Amino acid sequence: MVLKGRFAMSPAGRFLRTGLIGFQYVISIGLIIAAIFIQLQNKYMRDYDQGFDKDQIAIVELNSGMYKKSKDAYVNKLKEYSGIESVAFSKQKLGASDQYATYNLTHIDQNYGSFVLEVSPDFLDVMGIRVLEGRNFLPSDEQQDDKLIFIFNKAVQDGLQAEVGSMVSMGRNQSGYTAGFVGDVKLTSLRKEPDHISFMVQSEVALPVSYIRLKAGTNIVEAVAHIRESVAAIDPTYPFDIEFYDAIFDRLYHREESLNKSITLLSVLAITISIVGVFGLVLFETQYRRKEISIRKVHGATVSQILGMFNKVYFRIVCICFIMAAPVAYYAVTRWLENFAYKTPLYWWVFIASFAIVTAITLATVTFQNWQAANTNPVKSIKAE
Fold this sequence. Notes:
This protein has two domains: 11-47 and 254-384, no CATH class; 95-205, no CATH class. The chain is 52% helix and 16% strand. It has eleven helices and eleven strands.
């Protein structure tokens, strides 16, 4: 009844089948476009120059007591291993969050809100942050009890309009000396606007988070074992984890990675369902048109001409579906990218690629399904009909 019934090949029947396949195509094309742009945004975030070198950095969080009593012993023990290049400290784990303590800084009549990050004098060197103007922190800066020592990134420099040597106040009773400036350092994710970062050295703050730079080519397993031994030498009962900055960076973008995997999976499923639908539709059409195919062959039609006849129909369907899907996908991707202050461009080739992928898979399916019908002896087909 399905193959020979009247509704099957009526205009309404054809429209229903084509509409269902078309809807699947619209979903497939939209998901492919979304998946590609999510992948591009993830790659953009991973490749973005954040102004520091995050490779080969191990992070160990101590407690305040261990830092105050055993900092020097801890550093000396770490450096006994030749693969460890240098060690620095900060008050909190930097690069793991989108929010840090913010203070209002004042220079003359300029007020500016900034992340104020307490670090050890060698922090910029360990993190590979270059000082572009002025000087880096000095070990003697930690001994300055009467004032703070600041190094600002470019955003704070422009906002405060400070210069090297300028005095900057923080809060009511604290003032600091501007030692230098670094470039566009960014410690939060690319979802946020440019970071306003003030690195600060002072003598009274405990800095329990240690940053351990490993030399290139260092055996990671041996280095980790030595770090564990160094912490155990201070306090064998202290529970701690060794993290590498790459892992912290991955967690910062965990949401985007999960979304990318989900959309990619949905895209594969949507394409699979669409192709199964096309396969069934082509099989359905072929059964009805075997006699037509045979008559065309009797009149001299070649296999390529018959395949072209079927492919043109489905190519038109894909074109119409692409015209419908592209604006919707563009709008959805644009709205999603609004969540990021730093984002990948909306490349036109992504839309062309999605169209090409669906078209290639469809035409391959149609050709494969009709190849047998196009090569069947026309006499047998006409006799069977």
